């Protein structure tokens, strides 16, 4: 595994990280034994950068990682988590965002308990509450750094201006954004330019388009009834066929390279700069191994251009989130 320095921090993270959300929620039934085995294999492969959040299963994903960490060397893992999203107890869905200073402190202590650790390596604002000045939120997070509870700070799905303001209060090491061949417009342009001006890394979630870019999905019938993607616009009956046609082009290019569609998509993302760290999520060893191998794949200029051209920005059908979730982005 290759490693990349995370922004202004002193943390070196695996070039390909591991998103842990799907081990507990969102993509079908959870299997703890399988998830723990996948985490063990990640450690063997040198995949050290693990990403979770207090919102994933309302703390269940952090608790899962905590059980795994109890039998590992904490120093070999770069652990990232997030705070700020509240779930409605009845529906289980996010119904508000709280980034107040009081909640910053409460949420951090709760995450530390669930994870069973004395510090969090990267602590993100999961979503920003626009009525709370970001200076207040980051000021409270900076106190966590001073107290030794957090090593470095990050934000997720914010505007470039919010990122600049936050960075003026305390150095920001990472901004987490959705970024893939399927979703480029939210990063490329002002956000990426701002990150590079300020020396901030981009940690890219959903780098495989929530599984669309793996080439393994051919029908909505493959999605279980409790799979969140059934609510996502790009997986709707009206949009899925159009999007799968784009993926078939990716599959053809990957075959010509001699790799899988997932590996081609991740290698393309890695080639966008050493300040980009993809976080493909999986709960299965075979996909973890496939994804990790992408770090060793070097694409030619021609191959990179072919991959970009296969996904024109106006060709992807559907928004990346349902409207309620879209309303929480970019503040």
From TrEMBL:
<dbReference type="InterPro" id="IPR020471">
    <property type="entry name" value="AKR"/>
</dbReference>
<dbReference type="InterPro" id="IPR050791">
    <property type="entry name" value="Aldo-Keto_reductase"/>
</dbReference>
<feature type="domain" description="NADP-dependent oxidoreductase">
    <location>
        <begin position="16"/>
        <end position="309"/>
    </location>
</feature>
<keyword id="KW-0560">Oxidoreductase</keyword>
<protein>
    <submittedName>
        <fullName>Aldo/keto reductase</fullName>
    </submittedName>
</protein>
<dbReference type="InterPro" id="IPR023210">
    <property type="entry name" value="NADP_OxRdtase_dom"/>
</dbReference>
<dbReference type="InterPro" id="IPR036812">
    <property type="entry name" value="NAD(P)_OxRdtase_dom_sf"/>
</dbReference>
<dbReference type="Pfam" id="PF00248">
    <property type="entry name" value="Aldo_ket_red"/>
</dbReference>
């Amino acid at each position: 595994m290759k490693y990349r320095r995370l922004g202004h921090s002193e943390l070196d993270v695996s070039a390909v990280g591991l998103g842990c959300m799907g081990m507990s929620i969102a993509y079908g039934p959870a299997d703890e034994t399988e998830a723990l085995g996948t985490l063990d294999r990640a450690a063997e492969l040198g995949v050290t950068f693990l990403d979770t959040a207090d919102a994933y299963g309302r703390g269940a994903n952090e608790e899962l990682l905590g059980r795994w960490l109890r039998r590992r060397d904490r120093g070999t893992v770069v652990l990232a988590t997030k705070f700020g999203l509240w779930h409605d107890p009845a529906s289980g869905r996010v119904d508000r965002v709280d980034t107040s200073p009081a909640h910053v402190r409460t949420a951090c202590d709760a995450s530390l308990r669930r994870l069973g650790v004395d510090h969090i390596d990267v602590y993100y604002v999961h979503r920003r509450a626009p009525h709370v000045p970001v200076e207040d939120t980051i000021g409270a997070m900076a106190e966590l750094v001073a107290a030794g509870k957090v090593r470095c700070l990050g934000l997720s799905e914010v505007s470039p201006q919010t990122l600049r303001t936050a960075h003026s209060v305390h150095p920001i090491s990472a901004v987490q954004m959705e970024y893939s061949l399927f979703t480029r417009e939210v990063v490329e342009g002002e956000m990426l330019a701002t990150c590079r001006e300020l020396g901030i890394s981009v940690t890219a979630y959903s780098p495989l388009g929530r599984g669309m870019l793996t080439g393994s999905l051919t029908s909505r019938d493959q999605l279980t009834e409790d799979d969140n993607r059934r609510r996502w616009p790009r997986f709707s009956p009206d949009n899925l066929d159009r999007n799968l046609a784009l993926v078939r082009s990716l599959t053809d290019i990957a075959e010509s390279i001699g790799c899988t569609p997932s590996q081609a998509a991740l290698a393309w993302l890695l080639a966008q700069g050493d300040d980009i760290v993809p976080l493909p999520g999986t709960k299965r060893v075979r996909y973890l191994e496939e994804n990790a191998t992408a770090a060793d794949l070097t694409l030619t200029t021609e191959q990179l251009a072919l991959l970009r051209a296969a996904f024109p920005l106006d060709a992807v059908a559907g928004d990346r989130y349902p409207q309620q979730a879209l309303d929480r982005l970019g503040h």
